[in-house]
Each structure stands twice: as structure tokens, then as C-alpha cells.
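Kindly inspect this one:
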Amino acid sequence: MPDCANLELQLDENISPTEFDRTTKRIKFLFRLGKKIVLINFHNIASSDNISVLSIQLISVSTDAHYPQLAEHLKHIAGPLNFGGNQMNTVILGVLNLLDNDVLLVKYEFYLCYYLFMNNEEIVVQKLLKKEYHEQIIFEPDGNMTPDFKIGDHTAVEVRRLNQNYFADSQVEGLEKLSVPIYEAFQEVLHSFGKQKSNFSYYVGLEFERPIDLDIHELKKQITENLQSFLENSVQTYPYILNITNGVELIILKTTSKNKNLFRSAGDRDNDEGGCNISVYIENIQYCINEKSEKIKSYLNKYDEWWLYLVNTMHLIINMSDVKEISNNIQNLGFFDKVKIVSNGEVIFTLDKT
């Protein structure tokens, strides 16, 4: 079976680079649904209201009887949701009718590609909506635009990750935008030094806070050079602190060991993370509400009600008295009628405009 990297992809000029990137990821997922099915081509066949429709061709590399299983898998994927009306239902029926022992030719709409790769927060909320409401739940009812879901005919639902942000003047940035790449860079540098060559190795901790005046590439270079300089000098006192640049330092501990990596991670600390839990929740919930309200303001007349689900990723513990204080301090729900905070797959509290 061909590797995904060797697949032929044709891009119509009407598809933006962002849509192309997201779509190819979703189609590669389709490629993996059936072990005997190979994606050979896709292209844009129609565009209207900024929603592209793709033709996706899948062809079998074997004539053995895998088609019934694939058909059932497609039914399972498509069954729970309505992808924008009867047109998608017709497409799915067409998929099942085209199954035979030689060739499978399938046309999917853009909607299905997006459904297969909902982000984690959308998956969590979709499960909640299906459990809580008996009305029909539709994912991206208007295509690749707001809202994320529709309940029945009148309620629009937007979904967002509730994360902790860094606020500085006009700059707002999710902590993960720096914390993830900086830790990956840190791990990569430590690994590059290889195995120990004596009876000693070192644990290295990373501590940082914003703003950092170097990009990730330059930071990796500085960490590497500082660690190399550390090895060349005779350090006697531990823990030893290496100041890499403004806002970034390494804490080094020496340990006896055998056949270990010369430098091993002792973890990282983001000094901008945490704080007073109640204040952090209030600030970031309000920011998410404001941001999403700006996004939906041009579409308000399309639905009677707008709800916002915020899926918590901050992992800061709050109790019921904290929830009451948080609720009392968020007075502005923007254009939303309800805001629901989700944690561990459940709604833990709701802010209601009424």
C-alpha cells in the first residue's frame, strides 16, 4: 500500500492554504480507515458561499471482502450527525451503493472531512450535546464557519478551549503557545548530548517567564552553548544555575549513574502559570467570552439563541464557593445567552444571561 506522502493531491485555487492544510490532514485520516483502501486523488469540484466541495477518490488495492466492514464503519461515522441536510445523506447512501469487489469510488463533502477531525474540545462538547438534548445536533451546520454546532433549528453553539492566557498591554497569548515549543526545544537539546561518558550525569530543570527576547531557534542555540560551556568548566557547587537569557534559566543537579543520558530533564516551570485560581478563571473566562462574541456578532440574526461551551484545560482546582464567586464577577456574557464551563467531560457550572 502506498505511503501517504506519495499520494497525488490537486489543489484548486479557490481553496486557501489554511483550508488545504486542514483538509489534507483529514483526508489522510480517511485513508487509514480501511486497511485495504488507498486515497489516490482529490480536487475541488464546486464552491459556493466560501464552502468548498471536494471530490475524493478511494480505490481498493485488493479484492478481498473488506467492504462490508468499511460500509459499517462509514455508517457509524455518519449516522449520529446530519452534515448540513439531505445532500450529505445522499452522499453516504451513494458510498454504500458503490461498494463492490473491484473498485470503490467515493465522493465526500467538505463537511465530512471536518467532522472526522473535530478538535478535542468539539469532541467533548458533541458528546455532551448528544447526551443532554434529544433534538437533532448538527456539526458546522453552515459549513466551515460559526457556529460549531446547531441544536434543533434555533440554538447555535460555539466551542472554545478555556486556557490560561498571558496578558501584556495589547498582547494576549495562550500560555501553551510558548510553553509547548520551549519544552520540546529543551528536550531536544538535552537529548543531543547523548550518553554519559563518566560515572556522572545531570538532571536539568527549565524555568521561564514571559517576555522572552529570543525565538525558539536562537534559544535552542543558547541553551546548547551554555550547557557545553558548563561541561568545560569545573563546577563544584550544586544546584547550579545557568542564566540563558532574560526570563529563561536552567537548574542543574549532578548525580551518579551508569549508561544514562548525560543530561536528563528534571521538568519545567512556567512562572506565568497559576496564580489566584478565582482571579485566573474570571480573567480568562471573560476574555474567551469577549473573543467569541466578536466572532459571532455578524451572524446573530441567523439563530434565536447563542450558547458558548468553554472546555477547561487549566487544571486549577476550584470548589463550589469559588464557582459562586466566579459567577458573581462575570456580568458581561457578550452576545451569548448561556456560557457553560466544562471540566472532565461534564458541565460544572453555567452562566445564564436571564
